[in-house]
């Protein structure tokens, strides 16, 4: 019997049966801004050339080798000295800055915002080892606060099939409310979602990216490979004329209550 795309993708990823996954709709780049605004996220195939990403991948891998990440990462990477060292090594690097400042990126967000773009609104290099605890569903606005027009560009540094744990989102561009987030520990809060909700995720190739709004609920899928960690980067953007602060839309402060 034939399988639905959602069922086959779920089985392909080796995920729990109650996690319903469907593939991203693929749209031409000139339609990406309108699609992103309508749905809250968009898949960008071949957004970067693989060689543009590869220099950054090599730098991250060299840094992880120096850190011996498998023995020093610990249960909560956000509180690890190795994690902090990784960010301090990668975020100021020329290898990273070449990507979020790429004209292709700023053109995309200028089209979404209708104005000039502020870059480096909060970038993060992420490393997800096989079978690490899953990322809880969450919204970036909970963690960064500020403008409700912050968008994130997520991209893996090498090919990232579903089994390696790419980003998954709930496409609901019309829902811009902030959900309640619960949990303790730095970077460990998450929001509740319905058991039957449909997540959208696709196999990612080096150079692919996903852009999503700060109110879009998302998570990283489990890295169920037996190989290397999944390496990815989050780069954030907002309209240039909006102030930078950490107050959330509900009046609370992201800096005080997300730790």
Structure characterization notes:
This protein is α+β, with helices and mostly antiparallel strands. The chain has helices spanning 5-13, 32-39, 50-67, 69-72, 81-90, 94-97, 103-113, 140-144, 254-257; strands at 20-22, 41-44, 117-118, 124-128, 151-156, 167-169, 181-182, 190-191, 198-200, 209-213, 218-220, 230-239. A hairpin with a 7-residue loop joins strand 7 and strand 8 (190-191). Helix 2 packs across helix 7 (103-113).
- Average predicted local confidence, pLDDT: 87
User: Which secondary-structure class do the elements indicate?
Assistant: alpha+beta
DSSP, total strands: 12
CATH topology: Jelly Rolls
User: Tally the helices: what do you get?
Assistant: 9
Overall number of domains: 1
The string of secondary-structure elements, in order, is HEHEHHHHHEEHEEEEEEEEH
Distance linking N and C termini: 48 Å
Strand content: 15-25%
CA-based shape: globular
Helix and strand arrangement:
Blueprint: H1 5-13, E1 20-22, H2 32-39, E2 41-44, H3 50-67, H4 69-72, H5 81-90, H6 94-97, H7 103-113, E3 117-118, E4 124-128, H8 140-144, E5 151-156, E6 167-169, E7 181-182, E8 190-191, E9 198-200, E10 209-213, E11 218-220, E12 230-239, H9 254-257
Parallel strand pairs: 1-9
Antiparallel strand pairs: 2-10, 3-12, 4-12, 5-10, 5-12, 6-11, 7-8
């Amino acid at each position: 019997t034939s399988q639905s795309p959602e069922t086959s993708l779920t089985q392909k990823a080796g995920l729990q049966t109650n996690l319903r996954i469907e593939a991203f709709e693929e749209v031409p780049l000139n339609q990406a801004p309108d699609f992103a605004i309508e749905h809250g996220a968009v898949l960008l195939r071949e957004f970067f050339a693989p060689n543009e990403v590869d220099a950054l991948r090599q730098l991250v891998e060299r840094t992880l080798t120096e850190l011996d990440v498998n023995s020093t990462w610990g249960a909560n990477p956000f509180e690890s000295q190795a994690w902090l060292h990784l960010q301090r090594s990668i975020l100021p690097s020329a290898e990273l800055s070449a990507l979020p400042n790429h004209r292709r990126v700023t053109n995309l967000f200028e089209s979404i915002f209708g104005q000039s773009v502020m870059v480096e609104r909060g970038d993060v290099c992420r490393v997800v080892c096989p079978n690490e605890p899953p990322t809880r569903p969450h919204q970036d606005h909970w963690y960064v606060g500020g403008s409700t027009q912050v968008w994130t560009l997520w991209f893996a540094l090498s090919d990232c099939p579903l089994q390696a744990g790419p980003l998954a989102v709930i496409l609901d561009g019309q829902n811009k409310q902030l959900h309640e987030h619960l949990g303790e520990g730095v970077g460990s809060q998450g929001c509740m979602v319905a058991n039957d909700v449909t997540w959208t995720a696709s196999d990612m190739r080096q150079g692919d990216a996903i852009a999503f709004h700060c109110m879009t609920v998302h998570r990283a899928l489990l890295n169920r490979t037996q190989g290397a960690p999944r390496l990815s980067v989050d780069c954030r953007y907002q309209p240039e004329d909006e102030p930078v602060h950490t107050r959330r839309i509900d009046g609370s402060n992201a800096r005080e209550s997300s730790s």
